[in-house]
Specification:
The protein is an alpha/beta fold and about 220 residues long. The protein contains 8 helices and 9 strands.
């Protein structure tokens, strides 16, 4: 099966009050697990003019926020390109993020839309590639998603992004890696991502970098296939 491992970084825990700072996503095919460098990856930092957040979350993501500020204050495109190269992220306004993610899914055969059958439908050309035009009558991309606490945290934030519900549908059964490494006899709660990594013998701590955390989830799940 194919699934998308998704992680986000935010300015706090309240999906109504706080904002998404970055999104990391990796497409995994369980029948063809590729090395990290060959996996389809999506990593975007979101440009905001104002931020509301908790001191803990703002401090934890201070380097990410600094990169966003540097991009917003860059003097020219060359400086912006250098920052993209250095961070491995693209930088987009909030109202462009969902379309970019939809294009990423389409490029990797996960949009569920065949352009050859879109008679009469409008299309959009981006970087010499053709995509379905997001509109009120487009069929949302339906994807299986993996992520630690995705259903109770990340999903709530993502659904508040402009046009998310129009373009993306998350399948009901979300893959949470903690179920594979819970100790039913001694744990009093589901294990954290750090604890899952430890129990799976995966080195390193959780970095709170959205793409790296999405990769952690893939590595943990790979222990079971």
């Amino acid at each position: 099966m194919k699934y998308v491992s998704i992680d986000i970084e935010t300015t706090g825990l309240d999906s109504v009050l706080h904002k998404v700072l970055s999104i990391g996503a990796i497409i995994e095919d369980t029948n063809n697990p590729l090395p990290y460098d060959e996996l389809p990856k999506f990593h975007v930092a979101i440009l905001h003019n104002e931020l509301v957040g908790s001191p803990y979350a703002i401090n934890m993501n201070r380097n990410l926020i600094e990169s966003i500020v540097q991009y917003q204050t860059a003097e020219d495109q060359d400086e912006k390109n250098d920052l993209i190269q250095m961070t491995g992220m693209h930088f987009l306004p909030e109202d462009q993020v969902v379309e970019a993610f939809f294009h990423f899914l389409h490029d990797n055969g996960m949009s569920g839309i065949d352009l050859k059958t879109m008679m009469g439908q409008t299309v959009k050309i981006v970087n010499q590639r053709t995509y379905p035009q997001l509109s009120s009558n487009i069929k949302p991309s339906s994807i299986s998603v993996a992520g630690k606490n995705f259903g109770t945290f990340d999903k709530l934030f993502l659904e508040r992004l402009p046009r998310w519900k129009q373009a993306i549908r998350i399948k009901q059964r979300i893959i949470d890696p903690s179920i594979l490494f819970v100790d039913w006899k001694t744990d009093d709660a589901m294990p954290s991502l750090d604890e899952c990594k430890k129990r799976a013998n995966i080195p390193g701590k959780v970095t709170h970098n959205a793409l790296e955390d999405a990769w952690d989830v893939v590595q943990i799940l790979r222990k079971n296939y």
